[in-house]
Design brief:
This protein is an alpha/beta fold. The protein has 4 domains: 148 residues, tt1808, chain A; 127 residues; 228 residues, no CATH class; 259 residues, no CATH class. It is built from 36 helices and 25 strands. β2 and β3 form a beta hairpin. α6 runs parallel beside α11, α13 runs parallel beside α15 and α15 runs parallel beside α17. The chain is elongated, with a radius of gyration of 36 Å. One of its GO terms (biological process) is methylation.
């Protein structure tokens, strides 16, 4: 190994360092140095295509999921090319290489962007003989590389040391809040010490003196903290050169009398290189310093940089880079700079501030890119733009209902500013464009008390932000009452009546985030992956897509980083139009994310077959079998139940026009689905015949006629005025038509009752429902327009309609009404394919399973006085349930009737069948219409008598 590496070093020294001409041979020899025959034999690819929206770039080398290499000419300043290689790495999602290397023939800069932003290592060519273990990932059989700047390792080590101090303080009775604040002040002081904001090693020397018995830690630390909060400099002593910090953190110095062991542990922590610690340490401290019970209650955890970037990149970085790329004139760039200064970011569940930290850092980099472009393209006019940084941490806002998290987040952002200043200084030195960049003042610290609030975001007004990001608390609907208490939940449900009460906790953040977005604003949130399903989806992603939102980048499901053992969905969306393709990442059978470029991302974040292309089937449309119920149009047609029963008792002839009237709510929410009213229905009768029923006729005449006459006259006047202005104007006549037949319902549905007159019962469901529940209803009961009516009386057809096949088709094809799914026959029924050639035995099995399902429902409802809604709500709960078994038996029987495979996608099979039937119809071939199939000879065998009947 040493010999091959030395041979590589000698060979490279003979090269001129030409990026175009010698990069490939350099890469090939590098692979040989680490034991391969060459790059090609190892399976690497030169000039690998990296596609973006408008063009294709070429990375110098990609070796699977191991490494990405980008070469630059000899002497090139490698840090200035970090953005390029990061962009290449980012666009290789979801199967990005672990490591990325920038090389200029003389030096290697190694990154692992998934865990940290800074390089893991920088190795000069001549150091390779001694430092080759940093390239252990290049070996044929990779081993763990040894890096000198692994911030994750340093962060974990330092966090562990601080956590030990905290645990010791708690064990001996120090108040939790006091211990947290003391350590937060201490941690910031250790950072400040290594970032030259304090005199060199001042905090470390205090601890060392105390450890040696040369001073008391309480007095010395108190003196330092007080001076950091004092605008007036000390006139002498060890704190003479300590500057004023402010920032709110030291407004209340919190020294604690430390034991000798605690001083030793804190000294050990202080001796570490804190400028090598990733600010994610604050997330670690946050989690480590909280008990397991509290952490579970509020979903606290810390997050990898890669997972944060999955939100920050599409919602902040990409939109801004597109704007900068489109800016062609100085005027354009000045306008962007103005917009940048007013740009605001909100994290309404900010926790330790990790999302805000990364968002701030990346926005500062966007600012550098914009300034760089101005000074390169308009050097003569750049002076009028100025070089003072305008991006401030004051543009970043957050909320959390844990007070320590709030303080932690403030400190994280303060550190973000100091680190950004350091990075900016290095950037200016590196690019050497002569930009006289005006650095921000590091001290005093910005006071973030008005930016980061201790508040429950769900009951607090949000600022008007351009982008909303974050990772709301995880809590399932099943555990919310146990964790938060019924009082809080009642408050939550009352405040958010449109969000289903069984939705997961994070759903409320999605809902409120979309409510607070301005048109053109972006949001990116992490949620439990149940936001794609049922009630949680209804309150979050359905609400977003139904109210002007467009999901443009999402991960359907992935395991989350940190200690929280949970699978999440990551959703990025905008309110308003979004130009371009959308990116959805879905796990394959090997649990690896795969990228799909789509025209639209649905609210289930799935690759579920798109059934929008399903064909309308003439065999379903004609003869018409599905109807909307009657629209009465005036309360005067309705009669209370007791009054209606009295009318029928007085004169039995009235039963011909006074009918029980069933609405959707009553079908599912009343015991035995009992109607609460009657309707006076003269639909098929002229005025002479209607008058032969004197009592109901006079009731309608008294209440309905005056109103219809008034509305008809009003409409006539409007029509006359419209026609006077334009003789060809289209006018409305529905009120006039209602008046001409004032004794009849607005829409009596003659065609419906013509069909129902031949049936003893019909199938009905509520027209608006998240999950439709179907039931047989007696033909003696008139359906209201809140019901959908299916004019079939056999158990087989009921079984098909109540099965998962039809429910799934409904969920994909339905429209919405105020956010609720609505049964629309033209999109659902007219396209839904029935089994085409079922065997008689399978038809019987469906009919039997359907009847047994209804028998099971009725048995449960009778025993417990439940309604249909009650038992189907219980059906959604986990655990064994006889009704669940009955539904499964029905679904199995229906699949057999279709001849579908259980392991194949049901929607896909239904869509294929739809296409097949449509094709046969077009060719004039015979197909099976909805209803009992041709193989059934004795139809009475499939008709039973159970149905909803009016009870006195």
């Amino acid at each position: 190994m040493i010999d091959s590496i030395n041979n590589f070093i000698k060979y490279v020294s003979t090269l001129d360092g030409d990026e175009k001409g010698e990069a490939q041979v350099f890469c090939d020899r590098l692979f040989q140095a680490f034991g391969h025959d060459g790059y090609k034999e190892a399976g690497a690819t030169l000039e690998f295509r990296v596609k973006s929206k408008k063009k294709t770039n070429f990375a110098d080398l990609l070796w699977g999921e191991r490494v990405l290499i980008e070469m630059k000419k000899k002497g090139a300043q490698l840090p200035s090319h970090r953005t390029q290689i990061f962009d290449y790495w980012w666009k290789l999602r979801p199967n990005q290489p672990k490591y990325s290397i920038l090389c200029n023939f003389n030096e290697f800069v190694i990154y692992d962007f998934a865990i940290q932003d800074e390089p893991l290592d920088r190795i000069k060519l001549e150091e390779l003989e001694d430092r080759y273990t940093a390239f252990n990932f290049m070996l044929p059989k990779a081993t763990t590389p040894i890096f000198e700047n692994n911030l994750e390792e340093a962060t974990r080590e330092t966090a562990d040391l601080v956590a030990k101090v905290f645990n010791s303080l708690i064990e001996r009775g120090v108040e939790r809040e006091r211990a947290q604040r003391f350590l937060l002040q201490s941690v910031f002081t250790m950072f400040a010490e290594d970032y030259q904001l304090l005199p060199k090693d001042i905090f470390t020397k205090i601890l060392l003196d105390s450890h040696k018995g040369l001073g008391n830690a309480y007095d010395l630390i108190a003196g330092l903290f007080h001076q950091m909060n004092n605008k007036e400099s000390a006139r002498g002593g060890r704190f003479k050169e300590v500057s004023y910090f402010n920032g709110g953190l030291f407004a209340k110095p919190e020294p604690i009398e430390l034991t000798d062991e605690e001083v030793k542990m804190l000294l050990n922590a202080s001796s570490k290189l804190w400028n090598k610690v990733n600010p994610a340490i604050f997330g670690t401290i946050f989690q480590s310093s909280m008990g397991a019970e509290e952490r579970h209650a509020y979903g606290a955890h810390f997050t990898t940089e890669l997972d944060i970037l999955k939100i920050v990149h599409p919602t902040i970085i990409e939109p801004w880079r597109e704007k900068i790329a489109k800016a062609k004139t100085l005027k354009d760039m000045k306008q962007l700079r103005k917009e940048l200064a007013g740009f605001k970011v909100l994290d309404p569940a900010c926790g330790s501030g990790d999302f805000l930290y990364v968002a701030f850092r990346e926005l500062k980099r966007v600012e550098m890119e914009l300034l760089n472009k101005i000074h390169i393209e308009f050097p003569k006019s750049a002076g009028e733009i100025g070089t003072q940084s305008i991006v401030s941490i004051k543009q970043f806002h957050g909320m959390d209902f844990n007070p320590f998290a709030v303080e932690l987040s403030k400190v994280t952002l303060m550190l973000a500013k100091e680190i950004a200043i350091k990075e900016t200084r290095e950037w200016v030195d590196t690019i050497q464009t002569g930009i006289p960049f005006q650095m921000e003042e590091t001290l005093p610290l910005d006071n973030m008390d008005e930016n980061i609030l201790y508040a429950d975001a769900l009951f607090t007004d949000w600022i008007e932000a351009d982008v909303i990001v974050g990772n709301p608390p995880y809590q399932s609907k099943n555990k919310m009452q146990e964790e938060y208490g019924i009082e809080y939940l009642n408050k939550l449900w009352n405040a958010y009546p449109d969000v289903p009460g069984r939705a997961d906790y994070c759903v409320y953040w999605f809902y409120k985030a979309h409510q607070n977005l301005n048109n053109g604003g972006f949001a990116g949130l992490v949620g439990t992956n149940t936001i794609r399903q049922n009630y949680s989806r209804e309150g979050s992603l359905d609400y977003i897509t139904d109210n002007g939102g467009v999901i443009f980048n999402a991960i359907s499901s992935q395991p989350w980083s940190g200690d929280a053992v949970v699978f999440v969905s990551i959703v990025n969306w905008t309110k308003g139009d979004f130009q371009g393709k959308k990116r959805l990442y879905v796990e394959d059978k090997n649990d690896e994310l795969q990228e799909y470029i789509l025209d639209n991302i649905n609210s289930s974040l799935s690759l579920q077959i798109d059934v929008t292309e399903a064909k309308v089937l003439d065999c379903n449309k004609s003869p018409k079998k599905v109807f909307q119920g009657q629209t009465h149009g005036h309360e005067g047609f309705l009669v209370a139940k007791m009054e209606g029963l009295e009318m029928l008792a007085k004169n039995k002839v009235n039963h011909k026009v006074v009918k029980p009237f069933l609405i959707g709510r009553e079908l599912v929410a009343n015991e035995k689905s009992q109607p609460e009213r009657f309707v006076i229905d003269f639909t098929d009768k002229d005025i002479i015949e209607a008058a032969s029923f004197p009592e109901p006729y006079e009731m309608v005449k008294k209440s309905v006629l005056p109103d219809r006459e008034a509305k008809a006259n009003e409409q006539e006047e409007k029509n006359q005025k419209a026609l006077e202005n334009n003789s060809k104007a289209k006018v409305n006549k529905h009120h006039i038509n209602f008046y001409n037949k004032w004794w009849q319902l607005s829409y009596g549905r003659k065609d419906l009752f013509k069909v129902l007159s031949k049936l003893k019962r019909y199938i009905a469901c509520s027209r608006v429902s998240a999950r439709p529940i179907f039931e047989f209803v007696s033909s003696d009961i008139n359906p209201n327009d809140a019901l959908m009516v299916f004019a079939f009386e056999d158990n087989y057809t009921f079984g098909i309609i109540q099965s998962q096949a039809h429910i799934l088709w409904y969920q994909e094809k339905c429209s919405s009404m105020k956010g609720d799914p609505r049964y629309t026959p033209n999109t659902i029924w007219d396209t839904f394919p029935f089994p085409q050639n079922p065997k008689l035995a399978d038809v019987k099995k469906v009919a039997v399973a359907a009847k047994k399902l209804r028998e099971m429902r009725n048995k449960i409802m009778d025993k417990h006085n439940y309604t249909l809604r009650d038992i189907y709500r219980i059906l959604e709960e986990p655990g064994a349930n006889p009704l669940k078994d009955a539904h499964q038996n029905l679904d199995d029987a229906v699949l057999a009737a279709y001849g579908f495979g259980k392991r194949k996608d049901l929607l896909s099979q239904l869509l294929d069948l739809n296409f097949e039937i449509a094709n046969k119809i077009e060719k004039g071939e015979e197909v099976q219409s909805p209803g009992l199939p041709k193989c059934v000879k004795n139809k009475k065998e499939f008709v039973s008598g159970d149905c909803v009947k009016m009870e006195n």
